[in-house]
Amino acid sequence: MRAVVLLSGGLDSYTAAAIAKAQRFTLFALTVIYGQRHVREVEAARAVAGALGVERHLELEVDLRAIGGSSLTSDTAVPRDRDLQAGDIPSTYVPARNTIFLSLALGWAEVLGAGDIVIGVNALDYSGYPDCRPEFIRAFERLAELATRAGVEGARFRVHTPLLTLGKADIIRRGLELGLDYGLTHSCYDPSPGGRPCGACDSCVLRAKGFREAGVPDPVLLG
Fold first, then answer.
1. What pTM did the predictor assign?
2. Distance from CA of residue 118 to its chain's centroid?
3. Which of 27, 31, 145, 205 has its CA 20 to 30 A from that of 159?
């Protein structure tokens, strides 16, 4: 079975891909270079793809900086030490990002004859992004049936979200069970020029919380 997996270089997408591999999917990894300020994640995605032994790793450039609307694609300051319980959608939200990414994955899946797409979205320990919710995933699966030749001809596409209901600590524990090296990953939204994580953005805070609750050190911070 073939599956297109969206691979960002973060620990979530790495774990989701590893779970799909354990389920005996042949992985075709897609990394989107969208003009993000934290391009260190692209290097991490290459390392992760190599560790997973994917069949092919495709990097697509879709520059979203012209659209704007996000601190990840502009010079706007990335929020630090934010109250993650506030309930607001932070400036790190990239307009329609997962819709765009899944659409690209869908196009490639149709060409490959693959009915499965894997994405590492999480609806528990996350920053409140609307395109990480289960209702969005269900809606996209319906869209895939309507928007593709394969769907019109009777094919069905499934978007796998193995992490959707897991907390960050549970995700880390699952990855460690699979033997993953999280030292290959990168999560920070606003790293130093040398790639060192800031430790205060939403992604860093959630990652630190996950490793703390899992009772293991973060290998990225040990290097």
1. 0.95
2. 9
3. 205
